[in-house]
Specification:
Four Helix Bundle (Hemerythrin (Met), subunit A); 7 helices; mainly alpha; about 0% strand; about 190 residues
Amino acid sequence: MLDLRGRSRLAPILDPIAKGLGKLKLTPTIVTIMGLVVTIAGGVLIASGRYVAGAMVGGAGSLLDALDGPLARMQGTASTKGAFIDTMSDRFGEIAVLAGLAFSLRFDETGLMLCVFALAASLLIPYVRAKAESWGAEGRGGWMGRAERVIFVLAGVAIDGLGPPVLLPMLWIFVVLTTFTVLQRIRNTWRQLD
């Protein structure tokens, strides 16, 4: 939902930052890769149990990743290759954060399994969209787009790192909502197909 509605609202914030990155002669691809590297660093911090730092670094990486699109539009360099790199970066970033969380919970069987289910559902959401679009259907929609998933997980990790034990309830809610989003997209796609 935020992916669809939030971009225009965030433009007044993101566009000046993207303009600054353009003045530094950074390309959208470099910004995408920088965002991924920072997000992976956040995943490593989460894996080591430093939840607050990991969430902050992961959030910074996600913010960087949000700047490649506005930068590409400003530079007139938007391309299919850039969009492909961006979507691959998004998936690797999600894997890094959830794998880091799974590693930190490796001795907690319930937490570990929830991380596995969370990662599976997170990867199915864009898969359903891609498959739908390959058949000419609209594959967007649902409650847990990428922005919601990133915010939800990183907020839960950060809050848990500050003391309140919210990690397992957050993961349960995350698994339910992401699975529901997969089902929403499957239903929407099914209705559009002949």
